[in-house]
Amino acid sequence: MLAARIIDWGVASATRAGERESGDLHVVQAVGPDVLVAVVDGLGHGAEASAAARTAAAVLGQHAGEPLLRLIKRCHDALRGKRGVVMSVARFEQAAATMTWVGVGNVEGVLLCADREGRPARYTLLTRGGIVGSELPELRPEVVSLAPQDTLILATDGIATPFVDQLPGDGPPQALADRILARNGKGTDDALVLVARYEGGGGGARGRS
Q1: Tens digit of each residue's pLDDT (9 = 90 or more) over 76-117
Q2: Which of 2, 18, 115, 192 has the most other CB atoms within 10 Å of its CB?
Q3: In terms of residue numbers, what domain contains 146?
Q4: What's this model's pTM, rounded to 2 decimal places?
């Protein structure tokens, strides 16, 4: 936990009934003044899905400072011949006050804008169909300008959509993550939702580890 930070964040997750391990994992990694956040969903559920997600999460954490496309390619190479994953990845960049994000598969991403002057109420991540580890599509990361208190939400397909309707935008990230899971968790699959709020400061990230 750092006093000066770019983001405040929280995560809520649930394992599919009858399973001991979840295939849905998250990564929050400070890289100098910037922060990488990611949500990874191993295909299916159970031990193999969890192992695939752990592999991808380890690669993301180890190489967090690299460009997003290179990160995803590293994950793709590490998972060849194994159970694949889908993922969405974002980097908060302090100096530029921007967020760069990209997604493969069905990990949904939404950025709720706090300051709407000249901006929409929300941006939605345009993910590309594919599987990291077997079918990697052509990817084009998008860059979004940030204002303080903008809130990123990433959610796996164990969370029913839409998950931002009637959601208070000013609650603490952990409370928002808990609320989304409680209200929108399907209960038939692993589920994970990560909420990251841009604070406009520097030095890393504060929240759950």
Answers
A1: 999 998 899 999 999 999 999 999 999 999 999 999 998 777
A2: 192
A3: 7-207
A4: 0.92
